[in-house]
């Protein structure tokens, strides 16, 4: 039983009237991992996650969460999962800490609400009604409510959108600790650094489909593998340099005296460039190797910046 993935979505289709929001999406989340679902606005991330949570019925394909059907077996599934929605789902008049304590009591082996209040910096607003909390406080409370029941699996939709750096860091630390405790997490995010920092596995979604997936390292390894930059005197003979490089490389001078080599950046390429410089009496002022980031991969695959 434990060997089944925490989430297994195959060929999911979801339409709103005539609009296809999710169009044959596959998603597998192994147990005990953090999976980040990345995608531009309108890619279908929230719809997918809400379908996994049992809030939406698929129009096609299949969804299993902890081995269960979220719609027909929702009653058995819900106590085992935690859900952090983008917009609360909380009584506006209820007080923050009271609500958290109440939620904790609904579970057999909850986390300590006082610990969560302290960890997420909610101590000063424990008695404040929900509607009077700031956006960031409401968000941190939603995270606390999602995890207080010590769920096996937690869905976090944009958990740090709009948070200040300190609250963001506290959220990241909490997610990392939950993972160390064996909790599986699925998070949607617009932040590449969040995915790079937290996720074991990243799925890039665009136009309602998963267009790439893998560990952040695997995703960054494909395609143009890196960039080598150096600065030197302007107007170097790039054709001569290119002839010395492997066939799939590119050599550019985007601004005078600033050079960029693209391709499989490995020790051999570095040696070739420095030896070419030595042969041509070029002393680079600065030489740097840059790996591709998830941001680069995302842009290459979708042609879009994350915030549309
Ligand atoms: P964002 O990053 O902006 O939250 P998303 O990737 O989560 O976007 P979804 O919210 O799943 O994307 O939306 C996918 C598509 O479905 C969008 O074009 C959106 O406008 C549309 N959509 C979402 N919810 C509804 C709805 N209730 N009725 C009609 N269309 C909807």
Automatic annotation (TrEMBL):
It is found in: Cell membrane. Keywords: Antibiotic resistance, ATP-binding, Nucleotide-binding, Transport. PROSITE patterns: ABC_TRANSPORTER_1 (PS00211), ABC_TRANSPORTER_2 (PS50893). It holds the Pfam family ABC_tran. One of its GO terms (molecular function) is ATP binding. Coiled coil: none annotated. The keyword Flavoprotein does not apply. The keyword ATP-binding applies. Residues 7-232 form the ABC transporter domain. It comes from the Bacteria. It is a peripheral membrane protein. PANTHER family: ABC TRANSPORTER ATP-BINDING PROTEIN. This is ABC transporter ATP-binding protein. It comes from Streptantibioticus parmotrematis. The lineage of its organism: Bacteria, Bacillati, Actinomycetota, Actinomycetes, Kitasatosporales.
């Amino acid at each position: 039983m434990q060997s089944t993935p925490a989430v297994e979505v195959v060929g999911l289709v979801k339409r709103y009237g005539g609009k296809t929001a999710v169009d044959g999406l596959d998603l597998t989340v192994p147990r005990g991992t953090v999976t980040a679902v990345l995608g531009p606005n309108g890619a279908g991330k929230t719809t997918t996650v809400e379908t996994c949570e049992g809030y939406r019925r698929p129009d096609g394909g299949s969804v299993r969460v902890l081995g269960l059907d979220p719609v027909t077996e929702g009653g058995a599934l819900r106590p085992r999962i935690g859900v952090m929605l983008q917009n609360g789902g909380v009584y506006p008049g209820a007080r923050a800490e009271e609500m958290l304590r109440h939620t904790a009591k609904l579970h057999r082996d909850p986390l300590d609400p006082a610990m969560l209040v302290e960890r997420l910096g909610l101590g000063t607003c424990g008695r404040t009604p929900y509607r009077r909390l700031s956006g960031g406080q409401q968000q941190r409370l939603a995270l606390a409510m999602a995890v207080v029941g010590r769920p096996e699996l937690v869905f976090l939709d944009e958990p740090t959108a709009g948070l200040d750096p300190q609250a963001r860091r506290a959220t990241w630390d909490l997610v990392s600790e939950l993972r160390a405790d064996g909790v599986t997490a699925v998070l949607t995010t617009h932040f590449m650094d969040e995915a790079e920092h937290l996720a074991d596995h990243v799925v890039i979604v665009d136009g309602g489909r998963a267009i790439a997936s893998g560990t952040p390292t695997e995703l960054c390894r494909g395609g143009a593998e890196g960039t080598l930059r150096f600065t030197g005197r302007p107007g170097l003979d790039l054709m001569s340099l290119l002839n010395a490089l492997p066939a799939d490389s590119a050599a550019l001078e985007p601004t005078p005296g600033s050079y960029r080599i693209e391709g499989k950046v490995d020790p051999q390429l570095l040696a070739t460039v420095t030896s070419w410089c030595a042969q041509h009496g070029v002393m680079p002022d600065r030489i740097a190797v840059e790996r591709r980031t998830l941001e680069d991969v995302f842009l290459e695959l979708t042609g879009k910046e994350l915030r549309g």
